[in-house]
Design goal:
alpha+beta, Deoxyribonuclease I, Chain A
Length: 308
């Protein structure tokens, strides 16, 4: 087995940019490549090819350094303020039964719910099913098919600036959490880079997400990107921490959890759904949850905010 493909992957992964459309689609599978690369030094060791062993150890170590920290808990700041329980779900063009989603909100005692692919019928169904009894405040832009989003909250909301690229609406809101500074929440959902002509709106949609300054910021949703994409790494470099990685659950995959094929091939699951947390807030727990009629797992994090 040659080390060259793994070495090329490692070099591309370390470049601080998404170098090509095909790479944007491929880099999401870096954890699998890192795991597969372990076979090369083992083969070199068995065959006593010492130069190949040394080179392959460097490559495998580089890939492991990119991936393994997500499975190691740590990185929380010493936040001592109120708790905020955040749930996010991609509804797959409004297909999730409203009652199932409300049951999950009730079970997790979610304070804030961010939704992606929120359609007018899904928004109406949620209200008919009683979402207002649990989360009475909302800011939403329901749109047919995949472009809508919304934020529902136990606490009062003030609508923020809508982020819109490629007709995908990423709703933002200020949440008035008792005992905490102002909290800014974005329901994240840039367009998916399935085709080369969509890469621009995907990149712009991620680049337009606010950086962690001013209010305490939380970005929650379907980023259509993993922590191996350069644009996600830029957000982490700016100060955000990923709730899943902070709790040691960063290798938990979220899409697709149902059988999904592309060009006839099954797609290994990857981590597209995230809750990115302000550097002043701590992630106490993280989990994923299944909902029927969607190919994304819902993501949930219990956060501790700074005190006011």
């Amino acid at each position: 087995m040659s080390i060259v493909p793994f070495a090329a992957w490692a070099v591309l992964r370390l470049i601080p940019g998404d170098v090509h459309f095909q790479w944007v689609r491929a880099v999401a599978f870096t954890p699998y490549v890192a795991l597969a690369s372990v076979a090369v030094p083992l083969l070199a060791l068995v065959s006593r090819r010492w130069t190949a062993l040394a080179a392959s150890m460097v490559v495998t170590g580089s890939l492991a350094a990119c991936v393994v920290p997500r499975a190691i808990p740590g990185g929380n700041p010493p936040a001592t303020g109120p708790q905020l329980r955040v749930l996010s779900s991609n509804l797959m063009m409004g297909s999730v039964p409203p009652e199932k989603l409300i049951d999950l909100v009730r079970e997790l005692r979610a304070d804030v719910l961010t939704l992606q692919e929120l359609t007018p019928s899904a928004a109406e169904g949620l209200r008919d099913a009683g979402i207002d009894k649990l989360l009475p405040y909302h800011v939403d832009v329901p749109v047919q098919r995949a472009q809508g989003s919304g934020i529902f909250s136990r606490f009062p909301l003030a609508q923020g600036q809508l982020i819109e690229f490629g007709k995908f609406r990423q709703v933002a809101a200020m949440v008035d959490v008792p005992g905490a500074p102002q909290v800014s929440v974005v329901s994240v959902h840039p367009c998916a880079p399935r085709y080369s002509e969509r890469m621009g709106c995907w990149a712009d949609g991620l680049a337009a997400l606010p950086l962690p300054d001013g209010p305490v910021r939380i970005l929650a949703g379907d980023f259509n990107a993993t922590l191996d994409h350069a644009r996600m790494r830029h957000l982490l470099d700016a100060g955000y921490h990923d709730a899943a990685a902070t709790t040691g659950d960063g290798l938990t995959t979220t899409w697709p959890y149902r059988r999904w094929r592309f060009n006839g091939w099954g797609i290994p699951p990857v981590t597209l759904d995230h809750i990115l947390v302000d550097p002043r807030a701590a992630a106490g727990s993280f989990g994923v949850h299944r909902l029927t009629s969607t190919d994304h797992l819902a993501v949930f994090a219990a956060l501790t905010l700074p005190s006011r």
